[in-house]
Amino acid sequence: DEAFVEDINNILNSGEVPNMFPADEKMQILESVRPAAAKLGLESPLQLWGYFISRCKRNLHVVLCMSPIGNAFRERLRANPSLVNCCTIDWFGSWPEDALEAVALKQLKEIDLDADTRQTLVRLCQAIHVQVQDASERFLAELGKHNYVTPTSYLELLSALKSLLESKRQANAAARKRYNVGLEKLAGSAAQVAGMQQELVAMQPQLVATVAEVEELMAKIAHEKKVKVEPKAAVVREEEARAQEKAAAAKAIKDECEADLAEAIPILNDALSALDTIKEADIAYIKKLQNPPSAIKLVMEAVCVVLDVKPVKAKDEAGKPFNDYWKPSLGLLAEKDFITKLKTYDKDNIPPKIIASIRSTYLTDETFTPEVAKRASPAAEGLCRWVHAMSSYDKVAKVVAPKKAKLAEAEASYQEVMVGLTAKQQELQV
Predict the structure, then answer these.
(1) Dihedral, 232, 233, 234, 235 alpha carbons, nearest 10
(2) DSSP helix/strand/coil, 322
(3) pLDDT tens by residue, 22-62
(4) Is 324 in contact with 311 (CB distance < 8 Å)?
(5) Ramachandran angles phi, psi of 315, nearest 5°
């Protein structure tokens, strides 16, 4: 620490370190030296402090050691001239061989070594230090450069020797411990192997008997498999083949039904969507009509026919009787669940008489179209679409109904076969 060297320089120069003591400690020092200073007639604080410094200078002895290696020594002398001006310089030379031997013996005394080995190491360290000194002198003579070999270098050599010896001893101890543990493991394994060999020898008669029992059991199993299991397995395979055929037939019918229904389902969905567009205001508008347009009357008449709502007998202006569907239509429109009734209508079982009447009377009428009905009322358009959808769906349903019956029959047959197959498979597993 260069600040420490600076403090030493101040002590050597003036006997004190500036601002070393705070005010309270300085007052304590002045009070402590006041009795001795008073005998000399010194009373002011400056005189008391000078007396304290003189006593310190008289009793303080500074011994400062530095290594000459490197530029640090040179720079310290330049920055702190009191180290030269106020000191008695003593250059310590190299240690003689007997000193090197004595220091090495003292340093190596703490290490657990026999006498011969310790003496050999002492001579080795001594020889290394002396040889490095000789080589440094030749280096200076040949190249003109210093390589300082100081007593500190010798002490560092001894410390390095102790550290190296300790690390190697620890490494050897760890290796020896691993070796011993390995030997213990091998010995334990050998003992276990010997014990297992004895157990095998003792169990050999039992193993021979067990092998004979296993062979007998395997022969019995093979016989039962040939006589009982294989015939049952053949029957199960036949049943599985039948079940697969039934499943394939049912799937073919189901696919055919779904393909036929695929034509009518979009039309039906469009009609149901059209029903969702009918608002209460549209229905209220139709109910208020005293003399509704012919398109609205035609659509409501078709709806009454599909729902099997009977007409009212009436006479026209010429006195000719006719079926009046307008009054029943107003009754339908007044029902709260009118739209729900249309959505949940049993479209799969429309009576043939009703559907024939729709197709012959209304679907053949060129004015019975959603476009024409839309011009009269949005609600009429949705109801017209629904009537058309019922007719289209009925055409497909009449074709699909026999196929559905065949599908139900095929699935029932398949389930029957599967029940028998499951029973045989369970019997086979047992």
Answers:
(1) 50
(2) strand
(3) 888 889 988 998 989 888 888 898 899 888 888 888 888 88
(4) yes
(5) -125, 145
CA separation for the pair 382, 193 (Å, rounded): 93
User: Exposure string (b/e) for 285-313, b if CB count within 10 Å is 16 or more?
Assistant: ebeeeeebbebbbbbbbbbbbbeeeebee
Cβ neighbours of 340 (radius 10 Å): 11
Contact by Cβ (8 Å): 263, 396: yes
Element housing 324 (H / E): strand 321-324
Closest CA to 269 of 363, 386, 347, 362: 386
Query: In whole angstroms, how large is the CA radius of gyration of the chain?
Result: 61
- DSSP character string of 237-273: HHHHHHHHHHHHHHHHHHHHHHHHHHHHHHHHHHHHH
Rounded Cα gap, residues 304 and 300, in angstroms: 6
Q: Which two tokens stand for residue 166?
A: 């300790």
Q: Residue 323 phi/psi, 5° resolution?
A: -85, 120
351-386 confidence digits (pLDDT tens)? 889 989 988 988 898 889 989 999 988 888 888 988
| Partners of 312 in beta bridges | 324
The rounded distance, in Å, linking the Cα atoms of 399 and 420 is: 33
> For residue 75, which amino acid is it?
E
Half-sphere exposure of 334 (CA within 13 A, CB side): 8
Give the global pTM: 0.39
End-to-end CA distance of the chain: 95
Distance separating alpha carbons of residues 30 and 21, to the nearest angstrom: 12
Name the one residue in this structure whose structure tokens are 């369970």. 426
Question: How many Å apart are CA 282 and CA 301, to the nearest integer?
Answer: 17
Residues whose CB is less than 8 angstroms from the CB of residue 380 and which lie 6 or more positions away in sequence, other chains included:
286, 295, 296, 299, 300, 373, 374
| DSSP at 345 | -
The average confidence (pLDDT) of the chain is: 83
For 180-320, where are the E strands, in sequence order? 312-315
Q: Tell me the three state secondary structure of residue 313.
A: strand
Distant-in-sequence contacts of 160-164, Cβ < 8 A, 24+ apart: 161/108, 161/121, 161/125, 162/107, 162/108, 162/111
Residue 35 has which token pair?
A: 């009795």
Report phi then psi at 165, rounded to 5.
-65, -40
Spatial separation of the C-alpha atoms in residues 109 and 86, rounded to whole Å: 40
Q: For residues 342 and 337, give the distance between their C-alpha atoms in angstroms, rounded to a whole number.
A: 9
Q: What pLDDT, on the 0 to 100 scale, is given for residue 408? A: 67
